[in-house]
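Running this now, will post back.
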Amino acid sequence: MLEFCKKILTKVSFDRLLFKKELKKAISRLSKEDIPALKNWCVQQFGTIYGDIIQESFPHAIA
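Update: finished.
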């Protein structure tokens, strides 16, 4: 599921609102163990463009 979410986020990364929507869906669908991996990947891939969306979308407990 993690790899599927990464594919979707990559495909919608051209649109800010779509990215935010799909990121929230991905977080809700993933297991608690996969969420930190997704956050790290998002920061590496899209941190310069969507850093604000990434920070507000992930639960604060996730480091």
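The two ends are 21 Å apart (CA to CA). More later if anyone needs it.
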